[in-house]
Amino acid sequence: MVKKRTCVFISGRGSNLHNLILHSRNNSFPVRINLVICNNSNAYGINFAKKHKIPYVFINTKIKNFENKILFHLKEHKISFICLAGYMKIISDTFIKNFRGKIINIHPSLLPKFKGLNTFSRMLKNKEKVAGCTVHYVNKKLDDGKIIIKKNFLINDKDDELSLKNKTQKLEYKAFPEAIIKIFRNT
Ligand code: GAR
Q1: 73, 100, 127: which is the final residue of a domain?
Q2: Catalytic: 73?
């Protein structure tokens, strides 16, 4: 199987990146992680790229034309698929046009509920009974594109923001690889 050359975008801890790297070592997993883009020079997640000898690039997303720089690196590494894994920056429509249908994102809620930031505190405030995560295609609206996979769990009385985050992330480590397998299953 020819694996899709894939770039993962991160901003922080990178635990989803790490999980995808581990899955990509499996011969039957449809993608290989060939590049990591990071917009935070303090992001712990970059250590996973270093450890697994995956090329990585820091991009300052505060400068003009930063997306052109990203596109340059994606082209240089012949990237055909992009996973946003905790990348805390909205992707422009122009950028998306270059990779239409080839960018996916993971979000820590059951979309379309709780788009954006502070998902867990808003869920608790709203007295939600169910939480979870969603993997979806990226379009020009925030946390909005076609849904590929959702996974959920029941919230209990003892749950707080931290426990919700931990439980959600456990599900994310299943959902992200499953979504990728689903996308490439028939190609
Ligand atoms: C993940 O929980 C992901 O769902 C969330 O950031 C976290 C990154 O964790 N993404 C968003 O909130 C995007 N809207 P990680 O850096 O350990 O993979």
Answers
A1: 100
A2: no
